[in-house]
Pentatricopeptide repeat-containing protein
Amino acid sequence: MDLVLDPPKPTLVTYSALMSRAVSLGKPRVALHLWNLMCSQQNFYTRVQHANGDVIVDDDVLILDVIFCNTLMNAYAKLGDHESARLILNAMVEVVDGTEHDGIPPTQPTVVTYNMLMDACKVMGELGEALEVLDLMTLCADVTGDVSLLPDAWTYTILISNMARKSRRGGGVAMVLPPLIKTCNPEGRKIQTRHSCFYIR
C-alpha cells in the first residue's frame, strides 16, 4: 500500500484512543474537537446510507459503539456539561424530548455510561441531577432485569464527592450509606466502599 497516495483511514478505535488520551491529559476540549472532526468524515455512518436510509455496514464505516459514547460523555463530564452528557444518553436510549445529539446511534448504555453522567453532575455540584441519575440506574436495571446496571462502588464514590461539594458551598448534608444501598441496590450486590457511614457539614 502506498501510504502517501492511499493513506489508511482512521478507524473508530483511532478516534476513541485519541479522545480518551486527550481527556486523561486534562484536555476534554481537544477530545470534542476530534469528535467534530470525526463527524465531518465522509465515512461517518450518518453520511453513508442506502437510499432507504439504512446505514451501509462496511469495515471503513465509522459506527459508534458504547465505549466511544462513554468516552465522549467523559469529555463532557470533565467540562461539567451534564446537559450535553444527558443528551448523549437520551440519544443512546432513543428518548424523544425535542432535542438530540447529532451522530449518536441507539446504543445500550452500561453502568459506566450512567456513572459518566453522574460525574458530569458532580463537577457542577448538581446533587439533585446526580440523584436523578441514581434513580434512573435502578429503574433501568429493574425494567431490563440487567443487574449490571445497578449502582456500583464508583457510583457511590461520585455521589459522596458531590455531597461533599454541596456541603462546602453552604448548608449541611447528612447521610447514612447502608439504607441508601439497600434502597438502590435491591439485588444485594456487594458494594466496596471505604466508609459505610458518613456525616458532612
User: Anything to note?
Assistant: The chain is about 50% helix and 5% strand. Helices lie at 12-24, 28-39, 66-78, 82-92, 111-123, 127-144, 153-168, 177-184.
